[in-house]
Amino acid sequence: MSKLAPFDDLLKQYYALQYHQDPLILDRLNDAQIWLKERIKRTHTTLFSQPQYHLMTQYFLNRLYGGPDFDLLASQIERLLKYAHKAEKLLPENAIKTGTKSVSLAVLAMQLDEQIALQLLKDYPLDQPITDEMMRLTLLKLDQKQQRLQQLALLDDLGEALDKYMRSFMMYAAFKMCKGTAHKYHFDLMYEFIQDGFNAMKPMKSAEKFIKSFTAVERQIIDQVHSGHPDPFHSFF
Fold first, then answer.
1. Rounded distance, CA 165 to CA 97, Å?
2. Which domain, by its residues, includes 109?
3. What predicted TM-score, i.e. pTM, was given to this entire model?
4. How far apart are CA 29 and CA 122, in angstroms?
5. Quick one: CA dihedral 7, 8, 13, 19, positive or negative?
6. Could you write out the three-class secondary structure of the chain?
7. Which residues does the UniProt record annotate as the domain DUF8198 (predicted)?
8. Does some domain include residue 236?
9. Cβ–Cβ < 8 Å for 151, 111
């Protein structure tokens, strides 16, 4: 089986999202993701403000938790799958594995956030700004606890993979050799998606340490939301 085969399933999941056909859902999805990213930045101010974590913070917020370029990235992955046999010869296997983990996280984030957007559209006017209380009630109603815990487990797994694979000088050298080919065939964004993971690693001693610090706090917030805490998003400030 092709090493790129998991991307095919991820693309099917991504294109099945309802917001592709409904601009109202897309608008609310954008609102929900803005709220989520701002909440994450507030919660993890101390962690994110450390200079060695700056690039990893951007990788988190702009890649793993969905980003404006993901539609274009998905189309590039779709084209790449048509030339899977050639791509597998060019891209290092561990880069493909790590890229698959990253894309999987991004798709899961979009799925969960779209559920939030749909529930917000049912319960509130489209133009009503999202508040912490609206989000608290929405998360309780959706009961995404297990899915969000799965998301954090996947993040922990990615941290281990980044430390294990992305620090290899040989693999990075092999990956850099693919840059010209990626640009020639207009796979720039996909190349940059993986390269961001490499770049984020450089100033850090351990991606796993950073990610586990992040996920430990996020698990506490999930527990507080589902245990009925009246202010689950601010108790860490």
1. 9
2. 5-226
3. 0.87
4. 13
5. positive
6. CCCCHHHHHHHHHHHCCHHHCCHHHHHHHHHHHHHHHHHHHHHCHHHHCCHHHHHHHHHHHHHHCCCCCHHHHHHHHHHHHCCHHHHHHHCCHHHHHHHHHHHHHHHHHHHHHHHHHHHHHHHCCCCCCCCHHHHHHHHHHHCCHHHHHHHHHHHHHHHHHHHHHCCCHHHHHHHHCCHHHHHHCCCHHHHHHHHHHHHHHCCCCCHHHHHHHHHHHHHHHHHHHHCCCCCCCCCCC
7. 17-232
8. no
9. no
Contact 210, 158 (CB under 8 A): no
The rounded distance, in Å, linking the Cα atoms of 126 and 129 is: 8
The region that residue 2 occupies, defined by phi over 0 for left and psi between -120 and 50 for alpha, beta otherwise, is beta
Give me the number of domains the chain comprises: 1
CA 237 – CA 234 distance, rounded (Å): 6
pLDDT in tens, 101-119: 888 988 999 999 999 999 9
Place of tokens 């993040």: 155
Report residue 100 as tokens. Answer: 């698959």
Is 232 part of a structural domain of the chain? no
Taking phi over 0 as left and psi of -120 to 50 as alpha, with beta for the rest, 186 belongs to left
The pLDDT value given to residue 64: 76
Is 40 part of a structural domain of the chain? yes
**Interval 60-94: pLDDT, tens:** 888 777 666 677 778 878 877 776 666 666 666 77
